[in-house]
Amino acid sequence: MAKVSPRTLSGFMELSPRDQMKMERMMQVLRESYSLYGFTPLDTPIIESSEVLLAKGGGDTEKQIYRFLKGDSDLALRFDLTVPLAKYVAAHYGELSFPFRRYQIGKVYRGERAQRGRFREFYQADIDVIGDGKLDIMNEAEIPSIIYSVFTKLGLKKFKIKVNNRKILNGFYAMNGMSEKAGEIMRTVDKLDKIGPEKVKQLLIDEVKMLPVKSENVLDFMAIQGDNAYVLSRLEQYRGMDATFDAGLDELIAVTKYLRDFGVPEENFAVDLTIARGLDYYTGTVYETEMTEHPEIGSVCSGGRYDNLAEYYTDKQLPGVGISIGLTRLFYVLNEQGLLSDEIITAPCDALVLPMTGEMGPAVAAATALRRAGVRTQLYGEQKKFKAKMNYADRIGVPYVVLLGEDEIAAGVVSVKDMASGEQQKLSPAEAAAFIRAAVEKRSAGAVIKE
Amino acid sequence: MAKVSPRTLSGFMELSPRDQMKMERMMQVLRESYSLYGFTPLDTPIIESSEVLLAKGGGDTEKQIYRFLKGDSDLALRFDLTVPLAKYVAAHYGELSFPFRRYQIGKVYRGERAQRGRFREFYQADIDVIGDGKLDIMNEAEIPSIIYSVFTKLGLKKFKIKVNNRKILNGFYAMNGMSEKAGEIMRTVDKLDKIGPEKVKQLLIDEVKMLPVKSENVLDFMAIQGDNAYVLSRLEQYRGMDATFDAGLDELIAVTKYLRDFGVPEENFAVDLTIARGLDYYTGTVYETEMTEHPEIGSVCSGGRYDNLAEYYTDKQLPGVGISIGLTRLFYVLNEQGLLSDEIITAPCDALVLPMTGEMGPAVAAATALRRAGVRTQLYGEQKKFKAKMNYADRIGVPYVVLLGEDEIAAGVVSVKDMASGEQQKLSPAEAAAFIRAAVEKRSAGAVIKE
């Protein structure tokens, strides 16, 4: 029979069993952390009506969207988790309680040009808090504090959550008479990291058509750097010139104060005036998160405050604040950088029960005792030679093998072999279960990311 | 601005927050149970190349498939998790260790005619064990024993896993000289439940063109019912007439013996000769699972043994056995039947911390203490009147409210209010955390399904 080549599409991540275990571990940390902060899980369809999904108009994203007809229906695959959230909240407004706090971890689709490290199907892991009409500023600090908690639990240490406020930027541009060009300026300033201040200045003059003195004002402002107290004190010098700026500064001061209240160490967050976030809908606090030793990766977690989540679906004013981890890309870069731990158990099981005789009863009993104790256990049932069985144990990387030969069966015990040390001991099934459980728990306590 | 109606496509499940919590609970039980038996999680793309996905030809399924072009690529959404598994195993054969045991819980897509209780996007929760060339019969008993364990943990009691063997059916038809018509006969016999033996007999005579005496043979065979020992003893009477039949009977005897070894009670499994499973690729043991008080629902979990998982992709002989829970449909029918428990906590959090003064520090400290103890905690930060805050607590259904007024802050305590009983007590933050944690754990021990 002619065979079809069993390939996976480029731009679609499909992991080895061991890597998948690490990914699951990350997802479990995310689910638990988001739940711990009182976010409810949401699961929306991957397919939506194109009219609903593209209500806002897609902008740059639109040509990347997977859109197709099925019968008469014009359908599209979601390209983020924010539009489905807006739809959900607008559709169920009457049944929900506000502030509505939801998390969603799900796949989204963008038909980007295929290139290494870029994905067309990827997980986003989002949290958002949506208010009804109003939403307290405290939420704008709690959101990055949750991200701090998540990254810390994942084992990441060297990261910085950069915080800014769009009102400060808009106010600054207004006080300089540059409001109309604010969008263009922000896009140009965004290149600071890549091309440096001199070239940005030249672009501001040549392409944005700014006066040299004004472009210098912009660069001076963006150059304000230092610890959070220093940056805030420098910003105070602009106070009184523009109401929007002042409001933004008050918010930024409140957010930094709350971030300390929430226990986020100073080294893990920084006021950074160069952060703007391209998307139009952010109106206040904005975030990006940098792995401090890998700035080349770009932001691994971004978001901000918006005033109107669902304006394309409802007249209700629904302000919110949210943040998104690009999980597939984060996993990819951590793996590429060798930052994923090999200490955690990535075998399909913690214990492999190997019956050495034809008698299955004692092996089944041992497996049952292990599973009752919460030990992930595989019962090996194939008729193979001892060596082949041990080779299998080696290949799957199982930490413990539980042997049941004639002697063990006669004595009512099992032999537990530690595959790392080679040590072997005879224990009752209950003792074996407790022993392996404790050893496995110890290893499971380690984080998935090492740094 | 003109608004777009925020609708969800028909045939796509989108749950309320409370229902979603129950669904998550079910998924967590599945993930934990499958892991406990040593299955490794797998996550394959939802989009595949149409050539790969339809290598086998789709048959009935083909016209239901979501298939579309993106640029030059002919793409399709997966319609089950078996074809992606076949592709994965064929593509990574050299890196995998066999038996390869994987679980996958994921969405699949079939553009069925929209009707109540039918879904176009639905979760399947699959386990499969794949052998390299050979696979021991023990696996064919372990798979339904895992399903027994899963359903029991979910809280389901009144269910029966029906077991049959395709070799017994094929052997029986062979010994009656009806092999060529076996497919047609099985499809007709499949209607026994719906139209009864008399009409099935008539169809066998009129449409399958069988002699009346032969159609009676078939119906007599299918009418063999009773406890497992009795059915097996009746089957023994056919032994010696057909080698395939005899092989199937040996397998069935082995499977029922192992099922007892694995601790599956007699009332939860039954040898049932009417079970055939339509799909061509099953070659041995087949399963269906019935909710005994709701036979009208049909099988909620089906599968079986196949000889060649990936023959469209590789020459390697890859026998396997697997089973699939149609999770979305199962959730739907349990919900419709009122079988989902309202005892488990479905609020987004276990504790809602309500600051009653402008001072946030103590509230943040209390929330942090609760979270450290594993209590899912929301810190309420909105500036609202007391009554509005308590209304919110009521609406989200949170079991405990933690109040921080001036008195509490001065005394270094918190007031914990049990929202069900109305009882209120003052405790230190650490005591409050331990108290709520214990109460929540007790409630969380309950199963998601009540019967």
Task: Describe the sheet with the most strands of chain A.
Answer: 8 strands, mixed
Spatial sequence of strands, sheet with the most strands of chain A: 1-5-6-11-10-9-7-8
CATH class of the largest domain in chain A: Alpha Beta
Q: How would you describe the shape of chain A?
A: elongated
Tally of DSSP β-strands of chain A: 16
Say what the CATH topology of the largest domain in chain A is. Answer: BirA Bifunctional Protein, domain 2
Whole-number mean pLDDT of chain A: 94
Overall domain count of chain A: 3
How would you classify the quaternary structure?
homodimer
Give the helix tally of chain A: 15
* Rg of chain A, nearest Å: 27 Å
The class by helix and strand makeup of chain A works out as: alpha+beta
* Biggest interface between chains: A-B, 97 and 97 residues
Q: How large a portion of the residues of chain A is in β-strands, by DSSP E?
A: 15-25%
Low-confidence stretches of chain A: none
Helix content of chain A: 25-40%
* CATH architectural group of the largest domain in chain A: 2-Layer Sandwich
CATH level-4 homologous superfamily of the largest domain in chain A: Bira Bifunctional Protein, Domain 2
Please describe the structure with a list of short key phrases separated by commas or semicolons.
3 domains; 16 strands; alpha+beta; BirA Bifunctional Protein, domain 2; 8-stranded mixed sheet; homodimer; 15 helices; 451 residues; 20% strand; Rossmann fold; 5-stranded mixed sheet
